Amino acid sequence: MKLKTIFTALIAIISLAFCTVAIRAQVTAIKAGKLVVPETGTTAINQVILIEGEKIKAIGANLPIPEGANVIDLSNATVLPGLFDAHTHLCSNMEYQWDSGDYLVHSLNWRTGMRAIIGVKNAKEMLEAGFTTVRDVGNAGDYADADLAKAIGWNMVPGPTMIVAGRIIAPFGGQFVKPVPKQVLDNPEYLFADSRDELRKGIRENIYYGAKVIKLVVDGYSRGYMYSAEDIKFVVDEAGRAGLKVAAHAVTKQGARNAAEAGAASIEHGWILDQEEFDLMKKNNVALVSTDFTIKSLQAGGYSGDGARANHAKKVERLKRACQAGVTIVFGTDVMAGLKGETRGTLAIGYIDSFVEAGVPNTDILRALTTSAARLLGVEKGRGMLAPGMYADIIAVPENPLDNIQTLKQVSFVMKNGKVYKPNK
């Protein structure tokens, strides 16, 4: 009996020793030459970031580095929180055909399995470009976005943390510009809802299959009907009971006004906005996810050179007015088409050029990419800034983006949840 007791004690001691070693092995220390704080627009010099497991344990100058810690030397780089893209379609890769009325038909040729494979590729490319969190707002077939989010969360495939919408809720016809064959409409791309009961059912079905945000197409293109402010408020309240926010796609002035009046969390696109809409958005704390297409992204979508330049100029002008009006702007891209020589991630980060052209200060651009986005997505308690207790979503760039925002196109290091996905070279 005594021998058994001694043996049990030895096993406990050995187990404790192994646990201690394992805990120590999880500690990573990053030596940051410069550390940018987007919320305050400040920079700290020669900081040490201690990471234990998935989260940041401590940050400070001259912090002692635990013995046996994995040391990552970024002393010649600028370190900042991982970036956000609040309007992605990772499971979609299509050619736009606006004039023909075949919008989205191309992507519907792919079954959900192919959508998921496309999503895996795009997710990896976004992460490598420095995007550690995205809000994916539909166009993913039969919930391929929700499955991709799970696969990333389970470390099966690399990619950003995903806040997904599932199927887009829309009035009958959705975003199809012109009438299309019925078999095109009989697909899982949308949940068509034209009554309160249908809206409620659409919200609950999305939540059941894994949605963490509700995407609502407020207005059509040429049909003349749209959701009223009361309809949208119903969706906001119903989704809010389950803890979800509403992202309202609005491409008309009236649609945007209805969404702002109803208090949707964000207006997506909002390309036709004036002071009246800006005032409503500020009053009701509605963010603008501006999706200001670059000339390059518009050309990838099928626009001619002159058409792309004219379209881009209108978006930049609207972004400038929105910023001057004091509307909360959150970075979102809406990239859905590929371009030779570009990845999904490089096309996305290229949208900072639209902000620069609109005269947005570098500090505000960084907030749109980090803290403001984190608040919109509802993850501000865990992501969007570097502080003890936050997830270790960390990127590094050659220069300080407060001085040169273009350096965000040269991400040299990516860590998400404490795991390095792109080592510094």
Report on this structure.
It is a single chain. With 425 residues, the protein is α/β, with parallel strands linked by helices. The chain has a 7-stranded mixed beta sheet. A 5-stranded parallel beta sheet has the order 10-11-12-13-14, sandwiched between helices. The model is unreliable at 9-25 and 96-101 (pLDDT under 50). The protein is 37% helix and 22% strand. The longest helix has 24 residues, at 2-25.
Highest CATH level, the class of the largest domain: Alpha Beta
Level of helix content?
25-40%
Low-confidence segments = 9-25, 96-101
* Main sheet strand line-up: 3-2-1-4-15-16-17
Q: What is the CA–CA distance across the termini?
A: 58 Å
CATH architecture of the largest domain: Alpha-Beta Barrel
**Strand content range:** 15-25%
Which structural category fits the helices and strands?
alpha/beta
Overall pLDDT level: 90
Number of strands: 17
Number of domains: 2
Please state the CA-atom Rg, rounded to the nearest Å.
23 Å
**Contiguous helical run count:** 15
- Largest β sheet strand count, sense and barrel closure: 7 strands, mixed
Which fold name corresponds to the CATH topology of the largest domain?
TIM Barrel
Shape: globular
CATH superfamily label of the largest domain: Metal-dependent hydrolases
